[in-house]
Amino acid sequence: MIEIKKLSKAFGEKRILADISVDIRDGELFSVIGPSGMGKSTFIKCLMRLLRPESGQIIVDGVDIGSTMSEVTLAKVRRSFGYLFQEGALFDSLTVMENVSFGLKYLTDIPKSEYPRIVKEKLALVGLEKVENLKPSELSVGMKKRVSLARSIAFEPKYMLYDEPTTGLDPVTTGMVKDLITDMRAKLNITSIVVTHDLNLALEISSRVAMLFNGAFVEVAEPDAFRCSTNATVRQFMEISHLPNPCDPEDVQKMNGYNGKNGK
Amino acid sequence: MKHPILEEIGREFLGLAEALGSAALTLRSVVFWFFTSKFEFRETAKQAVKIGVDSMTVTVLTSFFTGMVLALQMGRSMKNLFNEPMYVGTMVAFSILKELGPVLTSVVVAGRAGAVVTAEIGTMKVTEQIDALYTLGTNPTRYLLVPRYIAFMVTLPLLTVFADFLGILGGCLVAVTKLGVSPTVYMDDIFTYLDVSDFMHGFIKTFFFAFMIATVSCYKGLNTKGGAEGVGKATTEAVVASMVLVMVMDYFISALLVAVGV
Predict the structure, then answer these.
(1) Which strands make up the sheet holding A2-11, listed edge to edge?
(2) Nearest neighbour of B136 by CB, restricted to A45, A87, A102
(3) Fewer CB within 10 Å, N- or C-terminus of chain B?
(4) Is the CB of A106 less than 8 angstroms away from the CB of B123?
């Protein structure tokens, strides 16, 4: 379980996160949505202490990593996390095989002879094959993201952080990644935190959705309750995403009319 | 009342203090991981090739032609003064071993390998590859910095020895072909008037230069901000800072070595 208490982060004089408090329960799929530049990526980077918060606590399985801690202890806590970066962040100088097996080398005791089998298995999970010997520069944007995902899940972490997992992907790959995120949770009981601006994705796959706006969560709710939220920012975001408020028949009618007019 | 110029000066000093503090923390981390982590042989060897072997051609050309021009100028000066190209070997070897060999090699390595290191680490920083290392259980200092420090510390002194040899050889070539000095006399001039401490004077300095170039290049790379433009800026800053620091450090380390009798 990850407990976040009064988490604050600023870059210089610009405040990005202000006193955020939320608990992320084991096994749940928690999505953070919000417009670009509102601190979503900052939020998940703080969870793994890739960014040091100004104040507040981040308690991962009882260990507070928010405050100062030695690099060695921090490294131990980080081992429970997998992280899918927005742009993939594959190591340019290494092949796909070396990239995907990187975490196995440093985070597990699995013998080296097992790496090719595990790498092939994880690559197959993300729909890739025969790419082991390619360098990241030889891959498309979508392939890079899938390799990055395979790298993150190779060592089967307890928590998985996804930073904009479907951005830049074609609809088929988007569907595959979406299924993979839900499968990971269902099969391996991995707790997932997804940061996205794709409200449809968040509402479809999450157990809870949080809306981050101006450094704070203005709404944290289960998808059904989120859809019915009366919060002005949430409503505005839903309207932009052409999603009606199911609890408001007038809104449903209005939105159906809009979608119908647009041939959706 | 705050004066804008004073404020600017204050800001610059604060920035410098912050950078020095941050560089010191990076250094502490390098020392910590150097002694506590497993030796990354493959990565270190790769870096030694990038930093040392790939810098060899430039080093060869620089030192060989420097030796040649030194012999030419000194031979001519001696001819003007004494009507004879005396002590050409002594002066070429003295200049190469004590100053030009280590300094020029360090400048070449700072410009070529230092730039490569900063650009590579800087690109990794702006594309989140450094963060990715953390997420995969690896400290970037351990995986990126320690191998590069070792590579710089091993290859720069070796390159300097190579440069010393080639510089003296270049000088010999000109002394023999242009000044009419026999190779025996040229070598005799060197062995009569120079000893091992003259070589050691230059050789010891290269370890300080290597450490400094590694620190500046890695620090600048790790603190790169702002995409491709930021990488270019960091690389330029690293090369300029390293080259200037080689010159500045050269004086102070030379003075120290002279004081202790090396």
Answers:
(1) A14-24, A2-11, A55-60, A63-64
(2) A102
(3) N
(4) no
